[in-house]
C-alpha cells in the first residue's frame, strides 16, 4: 500500500489516515459478515450481504464519499454503483473504487479466486 501526502500538516494527515483505515475496515467487515455464505452456491446472496454492510457503514458514518468505480453491471446482482454517494448534505471530498467480493462465483462455491478491493482518492481524481 502506498500513501502519498502532499502539502498537508500533521493534523490533516492524521484525519486522512483515520478515513483510510475506516474504508479498509469497512471492506474487511463486509467480507467477514459474508463469510457465512461462502460455499452456499448463491453468489447474489453473498454479494448482497457484502453490499449491505458497506452501504450501512458508509451511510451511517456520513462519509463525504462517492463511488467512482463500482462493481461491474453484468447481471441482476446487488452492487455498489458508480456515482453512489454516502454524504448527507456535505460536499464530496473522496472518491472510492470498491468491490467487496470480486469473484462471487468462486466464493459461492468455496473455491479459490476471490478478492476484496478498495482504493481511495481525492474527489474527481479517479478515471
Put the structure in a nutshell.
The protein has 127 residues and is α+β, with helices and mostly antiparallel strands. Helices cover 38% and strands 17% of the residues.
Account of the protein in words:
By secondary structure, the protein is of the alpha+beta class. A three-stranded mixed β-sheet has the order 1-2-3. The longest helix is centred in the N-terminal third of the chain and has 25 residues, at 10-34. The chain contains three helices and three strands; from the N terminus they run H-H-E-E-H-E.
Task: Describe this protein with a few key phrases.
127 residues; alpha+beta; three-stranded mixed beta sheet; 17% strand; 38% helix; elongated
Please write out the topology.
Elements: H1 10-34, H2 43-60, E1 65-69, E2 94-102, H3 104-108, E3 115-122
Parallel strand pairs: 1-2
Antiparallel strand pairs: 2-3
Unreliably modeled segments = none
Question: Average pLDDT, to the nearest integer?
Answer: 86
Cα separation of the termini: 19 Å
Overall morphology: elongated
Query: Which class of secondary structure composition applies to the elements?
Result: alpha+beta
Number of helices, counting only DSSP H or I runs of 4 residues or more: 3
The spatial strand order of the largest sheet comes to: 1-2-3
In N-to-C order, the SSE pattern is HHEEHE
User: If you compute it from the alpha carbons, what radius of gyration comes out, rounded to the nearest whole angstrom?
Assistant: 15 Å
Helix-residue proportion: 25-40%
